[in-house]
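Hey L., structure's done. Input below.
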Amino acid sequence: MRERKSSEILAAARELFLRDGFNATSIDAIASTAGVSKATVYSNFADKNALLVALLDAVTTEATGILRRTTADLEAEGDLRARFLAVGTALVSGVLRPEVLSLRRLAIAQASAFPDAVTAYWRRGPAATVELLTSHFERMREAGELAVPDAGEAAAQFAYALVGPLQDRALLAPSEAAPTASTIASHVASTVDTFLRAHAVAS
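Output:
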């Protein structure tokens, strides 16, 4: 029962933090949204700060599994470009999801107040993406598919070229229309083609 209540409270906190912001969200509002008493919130979490730390931890745990499944397709069977396009599209679409953008804004806004929690979010999110790509690129180099002298540098370049432009626009120009599927596909294809021209081993 306690675990279920904690999940309900955390879900309510996530909804309100992302919608209204951390500072504007009260424990009373979280309790009301979760359908529990204020005392129940405090019996599960010490305070609002603890809720934010728990939220960031839960989201990064969830993201780790998604990242592993998404990037694993790089080493599947089939055309190299098609594999990169599939993974690139999944990564870009993932970071542009409204709830992911809202969480990133929240993490950035609270980085000074919660440096350890936000650093953990970075390590298990953006940094983990580069680490997973690095591992795949190293294995693809060993398999003779990629020529990447420094797999880590190649992974960082690919990841940030892929997600950086569209993510920055979404974060810093939220009033502009979201990129269309056609725009995303064009950007991913251009990024993948540039990367493979530099690193794909000719068959």
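The radius of gyration is 20 Å. The chain has a mean pLDDT of 90.

-- N.
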